[in-house]
Amino acid sequence: MLIPISIRAPKGQSRVQIDDDATLKELVELVKEKTGLSNFSLKYGYPLKGLDISPSLQDASIKDLKLRGETIVVAPVDTTPPAPALQPGSAEAKPKPFTTKGIEPDETSLEWPERGGHIVLRVMPDDNSCMFTAFGGTIGLENPSKTLRDQVAEYILNHPNEYNKAILGEEPQRYVTRMRQMDTWGGAIELSILSDIYNVEISSIDVKSLRVDRFGENKPNRVIILYSGIHYDRIAFCMDLSYPVEVDVTRWSTDDEEVLVKARQLAQRLQGLHYYTDTSDFVIKCELCNWIGQGTREAAKHERETGHSQFGEMQITD
In whole numbers, what is the pLDDT of the chain averaged over residues? Predict the structure, then answer.
């Protein structure tokens, strides 16, 4: 008798059928065939539990394991040996990536027992492309910044009536020239355009106010990003916090309002930890010419006048 099993892996989910007299070894081989992975761990059930695929147990039958109708979650296992630690001051040492401003990892997720997993914050690099990276990851793009910037630029040039100087604040050609540069910030205009290009609602949750800005309402599916004043991160769902980001769920039906409720709860926790920058009065410095101004409006004006787009928040001490 054939039994149905769903296989969820980094590249998507597929539904297969396997004979209930088949062995665990045959299931493992089927997973390898469907996913293209050779090293992985498997989990199933609610709440998730590990499926022991040790060689000594692979003669067990699928029937005995009671896997009919189950979803098997496939998590890649990296077998690459760790690189030797670099000594302090080494020329090859890399700067640390953007971190969660001192917030502990267990404070960037909320358990969601009703769905057997966690809603989590995926922190983006602080490299002036965070919005593009945050959105690009929700649709599975690798190194998305250049691709998305080019798509936004072409969209603007192809819609001159909709995106004119009055909307953009400058001539469209100059605007797209700046937007193609990797150090130019993206914002509401770009989110609205990407929503149209990919036919997806982009829900942006503001940490300070907990407001949800929806770009592209009435689309069939939704992705969620988090805005903390001068930075964007991605919101995702994972079945287990130990799983790699490649198996995250990052797209939901727009009928699913529960995920927005849960995401706002996570944003509220981050708000309590002051995971945001108050852009109305924070002091900002241009890293190119040392100009100093107050708030994002002055920064945007400086960017339009000079083309400079590399800014940093100045820390004022008593």
Answer: 82
| Dihedral sign (CA 47, 53, 54, 60) | positive
User: How many Å apart are CA 40 and CA 79, to the nearest integer?
Assistant: 10
Strands 283-286 and 311-313: antiparallel
- Cβ contacts of residue 98 below 8 Å, gap of 6+? 123, 124, 125, 126, 127, 130, 231
Give the CA angle between residues 136, 168, 183 to the nearest 5°.
45
308 given a catalytic annotation: yes
Cα 100 versus chain centre, distance: 14
CA 212 – CA 272 distance, rounded (Å): 17
pTM comes to: 0.64
Instruction: Tell me which of 231, 233, 248, 286 is the catalytic residue.
Output: 231
Each residue's pLDDT tens digit, 93-113: 333 333 444 444 457 899 998
DSSP states of 6-72: EEEETTEEEEEEEETT-BHHHHHHHHHHHH--SSEEEEETTTTEEE---GGGTTSBHHHHT-TTPEE
Q: Helix, strand, coil shares of the chain as percentages rounded to 5? A: 30, 25, 45
Residue 246 banded pLDDT, cuts 50, 70, 90? confident
Q: Which of 127, 150, 256, 278 is catalytic?
A: 127
Residue 159 is a catalytic residue: no
